Amino acid sequence: MGDIEAPENNRSRRTIAHSLLPSKEFITSRKGLLLLGEVVMSFISFVCFAASTAAAFITAPLIEFLAALFLLFAYSTKFNERFKGFHWPLMDFLRCVSASIIFFIISIMSVSKYVDGASKAAGVFGFITTIFFALDFYFIFNELASFLKGGDSSEEPPNAQDDDSDSDSD
Question: Nearest to residue 45, comparing CAs of 36, 55, 35?
């Protein structure tokens, strides 16, 4: 009789598991898809670099994988809204810029310097990962630029006075 668990215990385990998983709304958003792509491609690059003779470059994909995984978790669980002291979009922008530059450099070095297949695969996946990070920092830059301008750039400021009207007329 101790083998059968109560249904309430299974429900509590499911709710704990669902609280750790990203929400469907976030994963289907543009930011969620980009972060998921960054996590997957960074992990694939990490595995390829670990299996290659270019193992000296293993640290960058690992750090970027962990950073992207943390941000995926933080954004999907709205963890970032609890900490108002950080400017999350700026931190994310700097992470994406540095990651795209680093992945581009190590991918070029991996493809050009090493001859084994795993290094070539790591370089190719590194280039694809560079594209994911570059797209992410492009979209973040557009959001930051519109924020710094003071709103949406498509809106025109209301014109309080027409150019043709004369304010001194009787």
Answer: 55
**Tens of pLDDT, residues 59-71:** 999 999 999 999 8
DSSP letter string, the chain: --SSPPHHHHHHHHHHHHHHSPPHHHHTSHHHHHHHHHHHHHHHHHHHHHHSS-GGG-HHHHHHHHHHHHHHHHHHTTGGGT-TTS-HHHHHHHHHHHHHHHHHHHHHHHHHH--SHHHHHHHHHHHHHHHHHHHHHHHHHHHHHHHHHTS-TTSPPP-SS-SS--TT--
- pTM recorded for the entire structure: 0.74
> How far apart, in whole angstroms, are the C-alpha atoms of residue 121 and residue 111?
8
Which among 81, 60, 33 is positioned nearest to 125, based on CA atoms?
A: 60
CA pair distance 81, 75, nearest whole angstrom? 8
Q: How far is CA 80 from CA 84, 88, 157, in A?
A: 8, 7, 32
